[in-house]
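lol so apparently i was supposed to do this last week
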Amino acid sequence: MISEEMIRLGKKKSIIREIFEYGKERAEVVGAENIYDFSIGNPSVPVPNIVHETIRDLLNQKNDIDLFGYTSAQGTLEIRISISNNLNARFGTCFRPENLYITCGAAAALRIIMQALTVLGDEYIFFTPYFPEYKVFVESAGGVFVESKSNPKNFQIDFEQLETIINRNTKAVCVNSPNNPSGVILSRENIVRLALLLERKSKEYGNVIYLISDEPYRELVYDEIDIPCITKYYKNTLVCYSYSKSLSLPGERIGYILVPDEVENAEEIYAAVSGAGRALGYVCAPSLIQHVIAKCTGEVSDLSAYKKNRDLLYNALTEYGYECVHPDGAFYLFVKSLDSDAIEFCKYAKKYELLLVPGDDFGCEGYVRIAYCVPMAQIKSALPYFRKLMEDYKVRNMR
Ligand code: PLP
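anyway here it is w/ pyridoxal-5'-phosphate bound
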């Protein structure tokens, strides 16, 4: 006998990956330039030059054991000093290297945190729309995935609903701002409100309810909107971060967990994080890229291309009649499907080689996600087909 659950997970690929694979196959048939693949959040802007230069310098300066050997399980001291200094300079915080645990990206950070915190039956609350892998991470750690519907007008938290969902089994509430897939940023006012609610509920139940802040898009913010530093608003916040998007390094698998000193039982939680990393077999994050990040904290790719893409796509689609909450960050548009069945709509869009992802797995039926981290030329070529798609549906709806 082998695990039925793992067979199920392995066979049912993520919908994003399925569409991405379809795009690659289709490109073989019709040519890559004729496919408008908006499926996956793979950064399209280059890694900054400083990262290339740092890799070259490291290869020249360090020996192979330093560069490619195992590091401490929690990451090198050098990278943790560099990250804590950078966070403190930016946010006026007092984090120490001992608050950081370096991971293979945000995915590993989230999975480790959930393994570290979960006692069987613990519940984790996620706001719709959410990154579909959260469900896999929570359930494989033995937790219960609980959904809280956001306000569909602006995808901010619906507090009345959240209050009815939190209960004594709630272990954590998770936020992801800027959000994948809506691009929405949680307002400061709502973060304050969330913090007050969690404090009140923690007191009422006599258990800490943690706030897990998943922040791979923290630097991808447009129009000079300010992103609040959540640890300052709620002391029991645990942060999961990744360099996948800000430095365009998703394949390098590098990120971290931040366990601030203010968190209740911080020492035990950090120990549990280390234990969970060990139990899951992570050993340490890749060594070369740890050395690189240690020298490049604070650097970001040229993210201005995403803002240009967002403006072009958002303005054109809304002009054609599509409905979409204005995205202030990340690199996704979450658009109302023209068919009440978004899966059918995405199938139909393939007629024009437009590859879109149905919102169903993000907890929102009737929406599609468009990842605009693509060359601008792809958006320009795809726009006439988005217009045709709208015209087709206008005709269909008149019948
Ligand atoms: N969280 C969110 C919201 C994401 O969108 C992603 C990846 O797209 C991840 C976590 C995982 O990121 P990483 O590549 O760092 O594992």
